[in-house]
Amino acid sequence: MKKEFLADVLATVSRCFVVLIVIVLVGIACSGIRVVKSGEVALVLRFGKLVGDTAEEQIHKPGLLFCFPYFIDEVVTVPIDSVLQQTVSTHYSDSEIVNRHTCGYVITGDQNIALISASVKYVISDPVAYTLNVNRADDIIHACLSNAMLEQAAKTAVDDILTAGKEAYATEVFASSQAKLDQAALGISLQALELTNVSMPEEVREVYEQVNAATVKASTLLEEAQQYRNTWIPYAESVANTVLNSATGNYAEAISAATSDLAEFYGVLEEYKAAPDVVRARVYNTKMSIVMSKIGKVRLVDDGNSKIFLDVGADTME
C-alpha cells in the first residue's frame, strides 16, 4: 500500500515537472516575440552584436518582431519620432557665488561673470549609431552643451550675452554642440536651444540692472534725437532751398532789369553824343509825362500865395 502511494506521488510530481518544463520552454520560446510600438524602431543584438548587414535589416519598424529568446537576442527599442527635452543648469545659480566650487557660472570674453541656463530639444536621427555609441545620453548632451556654453562665452562680451547678442550666442552654442555630437557619431540631432535664464551674479545684479537701465535710457534718448534730426534737417533744407530758389529768381530778375536799363542807357548815350539837345528835350518830356500822369489834382492860390499844391494819388507833394 505504501509503495503504491509513493509511486502515485512520484508519477504526479513527474507530470507536474514535465508540465513546468513545457511551460518554461514555451515561455522562453515566446520571449523572442516582441511588439514594436508606433513611433519606435527596434534593433536586435545577438550576443551583443548588431544583427543585420544593411540599415533595412538592422532597423525593425513598428509591429511584431520575431527573434531568439532573451538570453540570445537583446531587443533595443529607440523612440525616433519623439522630441526629447533636457535642461542644462551647470552654469546657473540663484544664490550668491560665495563658493566657486558649488555655484556655476561662465567667464565672458571681457572677463566678466554671467549665469546661464538652457533648455534643449533633440531627436534620435540615427538609431544604429545611438544604440551602439550612446550610453547615458542625458549626460553626453549635458556635457556637450555645457562645454559649448563655456567656449562661446569666452568669445563674447557680457553685454552681448545679456542683451542684444543673446540670440547670436544661443545660435553659436547650438551649432558648436551639434558639431561635437556629429563628431562623436552619436546619432542625435538637436532641434532647438533656448536660454532660459541669463543674468549677472546676485552680488552685482542690482548695479548691473541700474547700468542696463541707464544704457536703455541713453539709447532711447539717442533714438529720439535721431528722429528729431531726421524730421527737422529735411525741413530746414527744404526751407533753405525755397529761400535760395527765390533769391536766385530775384537775382536773375534784378540782373535782367539792370542789364536792360544799362542797355537803354548806353543807347541813349550814343544818341546823346550825336544830338545832345534833341535827346535832352526828349528825355525831359518823357520824364515830365510820367510825373504829370501821376498828378491827381492841382490847386492854385490867387491871393498872392506862391504855393502850388499837387495831389499825387495818396501822397501830397508840396
Describe this structure in words.
The chain has 318 residues and is α+β, with helices and mostly antiparallel strands. It folds into 3 domains: 84-200, Band 7 domain (Tetrahydropterin Synthase, Chain A, 2-Layer Sandwich); 205-274; 276-317, no CATH class. The chain has helices at 2-30, 55-58, 127-133, 137-153, 158-162, 166-183, 202-274, 276-293, and strands spanning 33-36, 40-46, 49-50, 63-66, 73-79, 84-91, 106-107, 113-124, 188-199, 297-300, 308-312, 315-317. The strands form 4 sheets. Strands 6, 7, 8 and 9 form a 4-stranded antiparallel sheet that branches. Strand 7 and strand 8 form a beta hairpin. Helix 4 (137-153) crosses helix 6 (166-183). It is rod-shaped. It starts with a helix and ends with a strand.
Give descriptors for this structure:
318 residues, alpha+beta, Tetrahydropterin Synthase, Chain A, 3 domains, 8 helices, 22% strand, rod-shaped, disordered C terminus
